[in-house]
Amino acid sequence: MSADSIKGLKKRRLKPSDIRNREFSKKLFGYDPDEVDAFLAEVANSYDQLIRELEQLQRKTPEYKAQTAVEKAKKEIEKLLEKKRAEKEELERQKREIEVEIEKLKLVQRKIFSKLKATIIDMTRIIEEIKPDAQGKKKEERSGAGVEGSAQKFEEQDREGGRGKTEGEGNGSP
């Protein structure tokens, strides 16, 4: 059987059941219907056997083996692609989660930076307020006044006019 005749069989694709179930019109003095049916059954069985043998021979050909290997490889590639797609989707989901976390951290960083800036400004203001007092104390220490000098001034005020200006002014007593 040549390759062309095999292709022809595939195109027509007459099945054994088609042969078995074929009905013919009946004419007077025609063939014996039982003999025709028996022959058609025999032809159908032979045809069925030929188809099986042809399929077995095709399975042995390098082309069939190559085609089977290609189909198997395609299925494996499809499975691998599906797995990689799922991994990619998972990685993209994780990336989005990380990007959200980064944005949250940037927001926290900005808030901390703002609080730190405000704290530095407050500390600078406090230092500026303390500076004149500190410079005044240094001048008093240099002149020898210090704490002892303040005590002396208080004693001098006490001797001169009583207890000082603050006590006399508050309640009206001399």
By DSSP, the count of extended strands is 0
Helical segment count: 6
Bulk shape: rod-shaped
Low-confidence stretches: 163-174
Based on CA atoms alone, the radius of gyration comes out at: 56 Å
Q: Give the topology string: H per helix, E per strand.
A: HHHHHH
The helix-and-strand class reads: mainly alpha
Mean pLDDT: 79
* Percent of residues in beta strands: under 5%
Measure the end-to-end span.
146 Å
Oligomer state equals single chain
Give the helix proportion (percent range). Answer: over 70%
Main β-sheet: number of strands, strand sense, barrel status? none
Would you write up a description of this structure?
The longest helix has about 80 residues, at about 60-140. The chain is mostly helical. It is rod-shaped, with a radius of gyration of 56 Å. The N and C termini lie far apart (about 145 Å). The protein has helices spanning about 5-10, 15-20, 35-60, 60-140, 145-160, 165-170.
